[in-house]
TrEMBL record:
InterPro entries: Tic20. The lineage of its organism: Eukaryota, Viridiplantae, Streptophyta, Embryophyta, Tracheophyta. This is Protein TIC 20. It is a multi-pass membrane protein. The keyword Transmembrane applies. Keywords: Chloroplast, Membrane, Plastid, Plastid inner membrane, Transmembrane, Transmembrane helix. It comes from the Eukaryota.
Amino acid sequence: MTMASCSIPLLNLSTKPAIKAALIPHYSAIKSRHCFSLPLLPSRPAKSPAIRMSYNPTPATDRLISAVAYTLPFFNSLQYGRFLFAQYPVLGLAFEPLLPILGLYRSIPHSSFIAFFAFYLGVVRNPSFSRYARFNSMQALTLDVLLVVPLLVQRILSPGRSGLGFQIMAWSHNGLFVFSVLCFLYSVVSCILGRTPHLPIVADAAGRQV
């Protein structure tokens, strides 16, 4: 037997549909569709848009102007601490480093009025400054005006140098001094951090003027 007689003829699948159907399952069904459907891949979840947080810090110039503005009512309120300084001399040591600056401030004639109108006309009424600097300057000026009222009441009533009236005056001065120091520390620290200090009673009145 020759190799030619033993060879098995190759099947031409393209010319024998019956053989195609036998060898390939569901051939007729696949043929009728003319294409193969691919399985659907699981869709990837849509990426959520990145959230960007905008942080706008207060400029250093506005913070400096605001902090300096609060020195005006602070310097003018030191006179209310004379009773505490006399009673507790150690307390005066904490304010001793401020004496050169305070001496320079008081050496200028009418320094309080000059500083007051400099902040009011130069900052509060100047639209080129931010609202942060204008509000803090106005709040400091409002506090400075309120600290003058007890002196006017004292001159009108004249409590004297002894008695119950003098004791009430001393207590009120001590309270005003402690209040002004706390307001100064709170306001300056807030301005350094770029936050807006809100002083009781004063903040609402200052906000209406800005």
